[in-house]
Specification:
single chain; mainly alpha; two-stranded antiparallel ribbon
Length: 532
Amino acid sequence: MRKAAVGYAVGKLMQVMGLFLLVPLGIAVYDNFHLPLEELVIQAEVRGFWLAVLIGLTVGTWMVASFKAARHEQGVKEGYAIVTLSWLSLTLISCIPLLSYLIATDQAGWTSFFTHFTDAFFEIMSGFTTTGATILTDVEAAPRSLLFLRALTHWLGGMGIITLAIVVFPAMGVFGYQMFRGEVPGPTHERLYPRLAQTASVLWGVYVLLSAAETVLLLIGGMSLFDAVCHTFATMATGGFSTRNASVAAFQSDFIEWVIIIFMYFAGINFLLHFKFLRGDFRVLTRDREFKFYTAVMLAVIVIITAVLFFNGPAPKDHAAKSYRNQPMTPTDFAGHYLRESEDFESLYGCFRKASFQTLAIVTTTGFTTADFDLWPDVLRFMLLLLMFFGGCAGSTGGGMKMIRVMMVGKIAFNELRKLTQPRLVTLVKIGDEAVDDRRVINVVSFVMLFVALFVITAFVMSMFVPDLTTAFACSIATIGNIGPGLAGVGAIENYAWIPLPGKWILILSMLLGRLEIFTVLILFRPAVWRK
């Protein structure tokens, strides 16, 4: 391991993050501009942002200057180390403003430093990994600058920090592709152009274009510019942080919901397919088997959920009331909440709209909510939990295992079933007309096994920290799959603030492992990787 080369690249990324933090700093200054200068600079969020910018730019510049001689010495091991260490470093820098705010708003102040640091690190890691799990119990009480920071971490983490750096600094290293592979979701990493920087530029170009389009439509729907930008960032990154306590449901607008539904669907598609489609290759979607499987799963689940909700309605009130909540409602409050949620199931359109939104939010791992799905029948709750494993397409901003891996595992199992009756049969795993080589098959099977094993281990450990088994299972897959809301104690109208500190650090690691697809992080635990 050439540690100097790793230090150089991480320093570059810290410089980039320091510059991006100037935007929420500007919002913080603007919102507090009525204060005298001496009070403005020590205002909690303002102080936090200028400290973060100063640290990011100063430390980053020092690292770049110190390790500049090693900038071309990056190899495979260095690529993986850069990805993991940069995500940890940028999360550490970006959590400073939120940490400053949490300390300032707590009467305990600095005596609860580690608790607030854990919460701030959790929130920002949740942002960068596009998980959307929050510890904020009152989102609307937070300053706009911090709400924008949450959305910004989503947007940067969705397409990838390394991918952006490759666009900004094309000569970061001759092994930039290794970093690209370590960060871009999915088992396939197609390159449109020989130069990696060109491919990265295409991905970000499509990302920005779709983000601009959604922002305009949300403005037309009646959102303010601030809300529109924040929700666009969260949608296109499949993140899920909202500026409202009730998430998207707070806007009470069918138009806004359908705009977000459509763009959640777009965000779950491989962005290279978007590019080819925009270039005039209109048949690219019909040729891509993963896209067709992704769409078929969406439609099938939406139809099933719509039918169950329309004909059966929510779960019986007494049964739904037994679902674990960290802060249970009074019987009167629950009865009112149950009645309000049930009103949308009286019409077929209402059921279809709720089913469409929550299916897209879970499958694409966006995590927005417009319904308390803990009130739904158990069969639908189980279906949503299962969908958390699927995720979007490879090359999208979605989390989970990815549709292509689910397809490949299904084909491998089907081929083995055929061999039981035809022992001499020689079969290949094929996606469309393309045969998948053995190396990719082994990689996919290994990843799925690790993903499931990580889920089992995390659920087992979390069952020691939370008093409800459903919550332990749900928070495990919701963080590994980068979904955000789960069931029961971390459900649609709950949050993660009450999780004990050790549990939060377990979930932080789960979010990072899930976003960087396990291998990128685990490889650093091999001692051989760190030897020269």
